[in-house]
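Why diguanylate cyclase? Reviewers of the renewal asked for a concrete example.
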Amino acid sequence: MNQLNSRLQDLAAELEHRATHDTLTGVLNRAAVIELVNQYFVHDDLSLIVLDIDHFKRINDSFGHPTGDKVILGVVACLQAVVPSSAQIGRVGGEEFTVVLPRQSAHVSERLAQDLRRAIEICDFDLPDGSGVSASFGVSWAPAGGDFDSAYGFADEALYVAKRGGRNQVCLSSCSMQSLEHET
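Here is what the prediction returned.
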């Protein structure tokens, strides 16, 4: 009976992991990120970094989906090597990721995003044409009581400012900057 209970517990844990994690990368999936962010916002301030791999469609179209998957895995490895243990990484779309940073200021999160950007930029992804990989980043910060949709929306707006500004850069959301002005 103990073996059966143990096996059921193992299966339940495996199902929980499959329900909350991306199958390719092993990081949190979108639903788990949303739940996590909303849980943090009950009591904590939170920064959210949203990043998108630049020109990812070109990589997939030029070299195939297996190479695209290797790039995605390489980006996740770069993120995991740099983010602090208090942060959580999630994959929220094909080539789009989030880093959830509870109790971190916008300035600290912006610096972390710059470190992540540099880590990706210097990584050798071994693409067939020898080209490099870069990512664009948007950062938002909100006080306790916020919600995922707002935090993500502000970070996503900042991400697209970075994309329109030439890619491979970090932008802090204007709402986060206004919050910082009130702090100083």
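Residues 22-183 form a domain with the Alpha-Beta Plaits fold (CATH 3.30.70.270). This is the kind of structural detail the renewal will allow us to pursue systematically.
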